[in-house]
Design goal:
By secondary structure, this protein is α+β, with helices and mostly antiparallel strands. 41% of the residues lie in helices and 22% in strands. The chain contains 16 helices and 14 strands. Helix 12 packs across helix 13. The longest helix is centred in the middle third of the chain and has 22 residues, at 227-248.
Length: 396
């Protein structure tokens, strides 16, 4: 035990005598929680000197506090020796900045308690950190500054049905807009990899800054649902239907008509089914359409997209309106040109009424969508260019 450790209980008196001589004084701040210094010194009497972090600059002080937070430490001592600055003022400033302006501090810390003392030629800061996050949550924060890696992390989280995720990244990635837009886009582009789009709640720490932590919570509805099993069931069903269609024709146009016909055979529009019969059917998904057999326009469009993907037909899901109501349909590439196909309306009114339509034809049918988000559909083919290759049975 060193001399200072052995006689630390006398140090407050020594410091006071020095102050009276005009050599130094205690500096308190609005952030400091006052407690009896003798008690603080006693608590630290047996502290291993190797556990004391020594700093000489404000940056070093701030980093020492932040390192304690990152490591989930609840207590610690920081020694300000040969310090370049005003120790008492900088201690309060550093604590405030770490707690409010750094990602880890804003995310993990509830509040700090601290005492400080000038001991001969140096200051000691005795710090207690009270957390609002568990050590596991802090340890599980994923750091990434690559957009590609961040997207991979988000995909993995939803594919594993994770309910919680925290990402440390640049402000452009750790943002509500990036996370929402990526997950929504991935969902509509990959109906066979992502069963459903969960409810997503996002909090950002701190509210501003070049680096931030995004706390993301996912809610999947019925917690009893086994999404992995449902995905396997969906993929098996989609592969079966696509193989049947492949065997019937090699023409992209004919195959697309056959897909509409297949959906008409296996899916019933949600509006035509008694609500009591829809228990546990996720009607706005490809699963609801192909496995549950009941779907709305979104489920029809997702199922059509899934089947097109399996047959290498370029296809997109369109989110828009029909007669001022939310509505989903598809855009497909047939022989190098783009067209609209509305699978649910093909089922309700007949394939010829909503198959291979141009932008102008769709607008004339009371459809609305953000044209800037999708390719132009200006192809000249129609249902009747392919109908001659079909039998009445194959098209219902």
């Amino acid at each position: 035990m060193t001399f200072l450790q052995k006689y630390r209980g006398l140090l407050p008196l020594l410091a006071l005598l020095l102050a009276l001589c005009g050599c130094s004084s205690f500096l308190d701040s609005e952030y400091e929680q006052i407690s009896d210094h003798d008690a603080v010194a006693s608590d630290n009497d047996d502290e291993d000197e190797s556990d004391v972090v020594t700093v000489s600059t404000y940056t070093g002080l701030k980093n020492a506090i932040l390192t304690m937070v990152k490591n989930g430490k609840e207590t610690g001592t920081i020694r300000l020796q040969n310090y370049d600055g005003e120790p008492a003022e900088d201690i309060s400033k550093a604590i405030s900045e770490v707690g409010q302006s750094t990602p880890f501090g804003a995310y993990a810390v509830d509040y700090f308690d601290h005492d400080k003392a000038q001991i001969l030629s140096y200051y000691e800061l005795y710090l207690t950190i009270n957390y609002k996050r568990t050590a596991k949550q802090i340890g599980n924060i994923i750091s990434t500054y690559s957009t590609t890696q961040a997207e991979e992390i988000l995909r993995e989280a939803v594919s594993e049905s994770d309910t919680y995720l925290a990402i440390l990244s640049s402000s452009g990635i750790a943002s509500e807009s990036f996370i929402y837009e990526y997950l929504e886009g991935y969902y509509y582009e990959n109906p066979l990899q992502m069963l459903l789009l969960p409810e997503i709640s996002i909090n950002i720490y701190p509210e501003s800054g070049s680096q931030r932590i995004a706390e993301i919570e996912f809610t999947y509805g019925d917690s009893a649902v086994d999404i992995s099993d449902m995905l396997e069931e969906l993929n098996a069903r989609a592969e079966s239907l696509s193989e049947e269609t492949k065997a019937m024709s090699t023409s992209e146009g004919v195959r697309t008509i056959l897909l509409c016909a297949s959906l008409s055979e296996v899916v019933v529009p949600e509006s035509e089914v008694n609500s009591e019969e829809q228990t546990n059917i996720i009607t706005n998904t490809a699963y609801g359409a192909l496995v549950g057999g009941v779907s709305d326009s979104e489920g029809y469009a997702m199922a059509f997209k899934a089947l097109c993907d399996l047959m290498d037909i370029e296809c997109y899901v369109v989110a828009g309106q029909l007669a001022e109501q939310s509505h989903f349909w598809n855009i497909v590439n047939i022989d190098g040109s783009y067209y609209h196909v509305d699978p649910i309306m093909c089922d309700v009114n007949g394939i010829e009424t909503a198959f291979l339509l141009s932008d102008s034809a769709m607008l004339g049918e009371e459809y609305k969508w953000n044209t800037e988000n999708y390719v132009l559909c200006e192809g000249t083919l129609t249902y009747y260019d392919f109908a001659g290759f079909l039998t009445d049975e194959s098209t219902r």
